[in-house]
Every structure is written in C-alpha cells, then in structure tokens.
Design a protein that fits this description.
Layout (H helix, E strand, L loop, with lengths): L15 H20 L4 H13 L5 H12 L4 H8 L4 H8 L9 H11 L4 E5 L2 E5 L6
Antiparallel strand pairs: 1-2
Helix pairs in contact: 1-4, 1-6, 2-3
C-alpha cells in the first residue's frame, strides 16, 4: 500500500509571523555574538547540556555545532544561522541562543514585529489589547 504524499515535514503549526519574529531575534543575536565571540562559551556549554540530557537530537546537535564553529567566518555564520529553510526554522524555534539579548532588546524586536498588539497603560497597570479589525 502506498503512503499519501506529504508536502511538508513534521513542523508544528505556528504562524509565519512567529517565525519572522524568531528570525529577527536571531539576526540580533548573531550581531551580538559576532561583536563578542566570548559569549559563545556558555552557548556551547548549553548545547552540550541539552544533548547529554536528551533534549536535542544528534542531527540538531551536529547542525548547531557546525553553526557555532563558523563564528570566525561571519558571512557563513550569519547565512547558516539565518537560513530560512524548514530545518533551521525548526531549530530556531527551540534555540540554544538564550540569554544573549537583554529584555529591552528582545522587547524592541518583538513589539516592532507584532504591530497588531498594543500596550496601553490603564491606572498604572499595562494591559495588552488587540485592535478591532473593523476600524
């Protein structure tokens, strides 16, 4: 019996907007890493820890390891980290590059790329509201 043809691999259903935001965050993280490669040390340790704990598959481990090894070749490092293919998109969703951006840096990217969510202070307490589409 022939299996039905699949057009996409097992990617979780996430909005394209989420993947764009994640890509923009990684673009900023790449810039920070290239400016200060010493920040790579805890990232390499995190990769090893996740691999030893079984939180990352061998193929993902190898992929991340190769990307991190390219830090001395900025164009290659950026090209591989920011690749828009399915495999790298999936890896970026569970990134090992955590803790590189400060909260203000992260928020500036996230809120700039999600204009449909506005924060409005109400009585000294921020609330998130979504605008009506009928305006």
């Amino acid at each position: 019996m022939k299996r039905p043809h699949r057009t996409k691999r097992n990617l979780p259903r996430q909005s394209n907007g989420t993947d764009i935001t994640i890509w923009l965050l990684h673009q900023a993280m790449a810039t920070k890493l290239l400016a200060n490669p010493l920040q790579l040390i805890p990232i390499q340790q995190r990769l090893e820890q996740r691999y030893q704990a079984g939180q990352i598959k061998h193929s993902g481990y190898i992929h991340w390891h190769c990307i991190l090894a390219a830090i001395d070749k900025p164009e290659l490092f950026r090209r591989e980290l920011l690749d828009k293919g399915e495999r790298m998109t999936k890896l970026r969703r569970r990134t090992i590059l955590v803790g590189l951006l400060s909260e203000p840096e992260r928020a500036a990217i996230v809120y700039r790329t999600e204009p449909d969510i506005r924060v409005q202070p109400v009585a000294n307490q921020p609330q998130c509201t979504q605008p009506d589409g009928d305006e």
